[in-house]
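User: I'll paste a sequence; please echo it back and then give the predicted structure.

Assistant: Echoing your sequence first, then the prediction.
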Amino acid sequence: MPRQTIICVTPNVALDRTMVVSDFAIGRISRIRGAIAVPGGKGLNVLRAVEILGGRALAMGLLGGHTGRMVAAMVAEGGYQAQWTRFAGETRTCTIIANEAGVSTVVNESGQVEPGDWNALADDIAAAAANDDAAAVCLCGSLPLGAPADAPAQLISRINDLGRPVWVDSSGLWLANAIAAKPYAIKINRDEFAAFLGRDLLARREIIAAACELICGGIRMVIISLGAAGALLITNELAAQAVPPAIQPVDPIASGDCLHAGVVVALTAGAAAEQALRQGVAAGAVNALYAGGAQFPYSHYQSILAQTQVNILQNV
């Protein structure tokens, strides 16, 4: 049986509450048109996008307290498969304030666990990745405070030993730790990549050259999101850029996660790397047209996909 389930790990789950406020300013009272509350964290955004795009996903992560029970209930009510690891604390809440021009302000709680909570999650993820149906493991976002310093690297090494591709989307020390363990792929934005390298990446050739350094170090695929300019994909065989049509964004939060989901779904279905990039970029673009994170209709995705261009830049 072909491996089809994409395991979407959110180590630091949140309840995301998004509000569209046209005149938001600190120190003022604002009226909102409405609010959307959804299970949040990068892995859950990837989960929703995977399912919209026709893939099969499994949510995993740490949940605790009343907010954790709410998140679990909302995920179940959405019809998604999940396998949660419980901990004694409280799942965090995050607030997203977006204006009508698509500019968002994000207020994130940090999340707090004990080292043993992370170890229990790592054991659960490794067990799920060992199942015959597991196609890939997407390790997404930040880790909560209290996780061991070597947490992502140790988990990635375990999954690598199982022969499952690991996709990482993180930043800062967690990203550096993960890269040292040589996951199959990383998906990050240009600013996160520049911060990891400790230098500016202003030109496309600089980004490609830096990504090639990671490829030479053992990572198979690097995807760098560029906002309205789409995204770059670099492997040992090629460098490609996909560019979406011009849009007026409503809420760009989670567009990188939808890019991530689109690429993994396409590759799992057997698409070539450059076409997987095109599908991912289209998913990221259409996501920005809807509030809430990974809440777009498939029909609109198809329309954006038809207008998304991909170009092979060079052989590497």
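Residues 115-129 form the longest helix (15 residues). The mean pLDDT is 92.
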